[in-house]
Structure formats: C-alpha cells, structure tokens
Amino acid sequence: MNDTHSKVIGYVLWVFGFLGAHRFYYGKPVTCTIWLFTFGLFGIGWLIDLFLIPAMDREADLRFHSGQYDYSVTWILLTFLGLFGVHRMYLGKWISGVLYLFTLGFFGLGVIYDFWTLNDQISIKNREYCPELKNGFNG
C-alpha cells in the first residue's frame, strides 16, 4: 500500500485544524473550507477529527499515488513558501513557479488554487514518473 501522507504531519496540522489545515493536507478541500469559515464547526468537528485522522490518512494513501515527489515536503513548501512558487519549482513546474515568484502566487489566487488541488497535482506528477502506473498497471 502507498504511504503518501504522514499521520505525524496530520496531527501537527490538526493543532491548527480549527482552520482546516489537516483537511487540506488529506485532500478534503470542501470540508476544509467549511472548517476555515466555521472554526472547525465551532470546535466540535475539530475535536472529532482527532479520532478521524487515522482514517483520513488511510483514505489519502489509497487515493493518491506515491512516487518521486513527497506529499509532506510539497505541502510544507506550499504552506510556508507558496507565494514564491517554491512548491511548484519542486514539482518541476518551473514556468509557473517563476511566475508565482514575481506575482506573489498570481496575487494569492494561485496559492488558493494550489491548496485546493495540490494532492492531485502531486499524484499526477508521481504517476508520470512511474512507468507501471502510466501504462495502467496498479500493482
């Protein structure tokens, strides 16, 4: 089985989970946005997530492809250096990375887009670099 995401990172992000950070990390952008605007469903959803993180981790491991690009590294780069496009450069997306650098992540809108889609972007890049997955073989 893939081990694409880290429970340790998930729990660290859970500390800030009332803003939904751990839900973005595990590829749940819709509920993350709800958490963001309701402070983790008024704290109740945030507390429940403490027990749901192992299931979210397993689901992410099944849903996304492991490979050359590490999910945790990419998420850390997006979180702390996203406005400068470092996460895009790490993924080999040099043109958009440089554009992010000079436009502060396309004026912040590109960074928001990346928070919503980063897991899929990484999964696609990992699939491109894995010949077995590229040809349809999933192991």
What can you see in these coordinates?
The chain is 73% helix and 0% strand. By secondary structure, the protein is mostly helical. Helix 5 (71-81) runs antiparallel to helix 8. The N and C termini lie close together (9 Å).
**Strand content of the residues, in percent?**
under 5%
What is the ordering of alpha helices and beta strands?
Answer: HHHHHHHHH
Helix content: over 70%
Largest sheet: none
Q: How many helix segments?
A: 9
Mean of pLDDT: 91
Shape: flat
Low-confidence stretches: none
CA radius of gyration is 15 Å
Structural class: mainly alpha
- Give the strand tally: 0
Name a few traits of the molecule:
single chain, 139 residues, mainly alpha, 9 helices, 73% helix, 0% strand
